[in-house]
Amino acid sequence: MDLRLKFNEDVVNYEKMRPTYVEELFQDVIRYSDLNPRMKALEVGIGTGQATLPFLNTGCEMTAIELGEDLAKFSAEKFSRFPQFRVIQSDFESVRLEPGQYDLIYSATAFHWIPQEIGYPKVYQLLRSGGVLALFWNRPFPAGRDELHEAMQRIYAKYAPSSKEPAPHTEQKSLEMVHTLEQYGFVDANFKLYHHTRTFDAPSYVALLNTYSDHRAFPEEQRVRLEQEMIEAINHYGGKVELHDTIDLYLARKP
User: Fold this and answer.
1) Which one of 48, 133, 159, 171 has the fewest beta carbons within 10 angstroms of its own beta carbon?
2) In whole angstroms, what separates CA 172 from the centre of its chain?
3) What is the pLDDT of residue 8?
4) pLDDT at 9
5) What does each C-alpha distance from 120 to 62, 124, 139, 220, 253 come to in angstroms?
6) Cβ(46)–Cβ(106) under 8 Å?
């Protein structure tokens, strides 16, 4: 099963529940790349466009790649008012694009789906000399290890014992990512971390879970029971879930 296709199953919920990114991140990317109307940008894995509008607002010519057919159609319609925008429905690995034509290539919480040995050489090839690669991820982590957190972990252990609790992001992981960029020939590589907190009630938290491919891949009966017990636990322990988001951004140039 290609878990990437799970994102295409409920486009409306994905658009509603998936977070956007902090404004500071967009401004940092735009400043670093000096993006303007004379330039071309490429987004890898647009989804429903949580990270698209700030770049379109620069007036640049933008192409987006999206594997999911329904997601691609949704984003094409969502940004149809921008004549300089187009969506190609394809996986990034096989899409054919002209080398050396992009001033900025970026990907928001999507580039990990592409095999490293394919993704990095391809973006390097597609960028012009001096062009910028921007990769960023949103990494949510439950706030604290309180009674609700422990109850949620027991539910996962019961219904999805192979699931692993996400570990908090560390600066060491970011340094390793910078080293990877340098290994593939990029220069001036650096990273920046941003932090954000989101609060959910029980139904909205379950709706968020349904935007994750591994959650959607559970057998239906197992998923329904997990979600019901999750709602009961959240309501029992105050009715709210806090997620602390760490957003890690990586910027680098093609020499």
Assistant:
1) 171
2) 20
3) 54
4) 54
5) 20, 6, 21, 36, 12
6) no
